[in-house]
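Session log. Operator J.P. requested a structure for one protein chain; no other inputs attached. Running the standard single-chain path with token output.
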Amino acid sequence: MCLGLDRLRSRVGLALAALLLFALEARQSVGYFNFDEYCHPVEFASYKLGRTPPGELNPEFGYRMRPFLQPGAYALLSRALSPLGVSDPGSALLAFRLGGALFAWASLCLLACALARRLPGDREKTRFFAVCLFAWYLPFLSVRTSQENLSGSLLAAALALWLLLEKRPALAASAAGLALGLSFDIRYQVVLAALGFFAWLALVRRPGLPGLAAFAASFFAAVAIGLAVDAWGYGEWTLTPWNYVRVNLLEGRADQFGRFPLTYYLVQLPLAHPPLSALLLAAVAFFWIRAPRDPITWMTVPFAVGHSLLAHKELRFLFPLGPLAAAVPPLLLFDPGLRLERLRGWLSRHRATVALLAGLDLAFLAALLLVPVRHDLSVQIALYRDLVRDPNTEVVLLQGARLSEPCPVVFLRPPGFSPKSAAGWSDLPPLLAAADGPVRVVARLADLPPDSFREAHRPRLLAAPLPEAVARLLTRPVGRTEMLALWSVERR
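Structure written below.
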């Protein structure tokens, strides 16, 4: 009894440690992995908040092809925080990331609890939690303000709700259908996983007509909610899912961003974070073969195959499968129903290999926590706060420093923002002499101030994705990026 209680406490401790890790990632990960992650949800929310005019939104706004459920939630969260004194857009972005991280963590814990019931003992359940909750990529993905992240969390929640409530099939089907419908409202491609789950429900689980009807009713009720929110977002009724299919597939707009071979994901996934990403891909493929009747298989196979058949491919398109994929390796290791005693025996005899893989997982966790995302927004956040604090602050952009690419960053744009431009540090002294207030300089992080300028104007680094010492040490890698830095300079 005491041992079982201790193991339960261990699982609670693991869950709380994972929550802390997710929160730290949300705090550190200032920026976006792909521009869609920012340009769609955040700027669409900014439009509903009255910040971003329609003309500066992504062209997809004009096509009426993006759902408004996630941006609407962000807009409501921002309005709810405003009476509490949180009106700064940088703080709002942090709240968006923390909210996504908390929901992802909760859905992952729910999925782990549901799947752990398959395992025979407390020790296996505790190990399952450890492997599932600390997959190296999950904290990084969970804090992204992307459709892929939120839809993936809802996918995991849908499966977990079914498994936890399956003794009452109609209730379980309703809960899973609602979660899958909301997941579809966030990212329409999730319909492939939803169809796979419905097929599993009808052909394998067979809850009867009431169960299937309950699933369909709750799924389409969620879709109707999404369409109503889209009407609120766009100011008119529109079939947003159809617009998405028409523009991207029938009119071929998606193909303009590149066409890739059928084997794209088989090649690119192993290269993402080798060797762990290659092992994860192999584990998922092996699970499909070993567990053909499992709902995870029925949900993930249509999604993966469907995306492989599309001409335009990006790794992020598979991110919704992240939480489900994280559960596959510990299922292979600890689920006795899969009858993999030889694999478990081999791993027990090769503890050094297990320790190496665990060390690599922790190393990738640390790297993704510390290394900046592809597009950092810390400079824009710091600029906004500076100009709100002192509207007389003047901003100078050095050549090569771009604040609004690949998409406009209007949500973080200070009121009355009109920066000056200069070719380089040597051209700044005349602008500094004519300035009436504090001066801030935005430059590429690789373009560090020369010694002569330092002696005369004492530049001070205010915001950057990396410390100056690291930028000096990694001159070439930093020079190949679009990382920006914000400097305060003296006018003398």
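Operator note: The chain has two domains: 2-370, 376-489.
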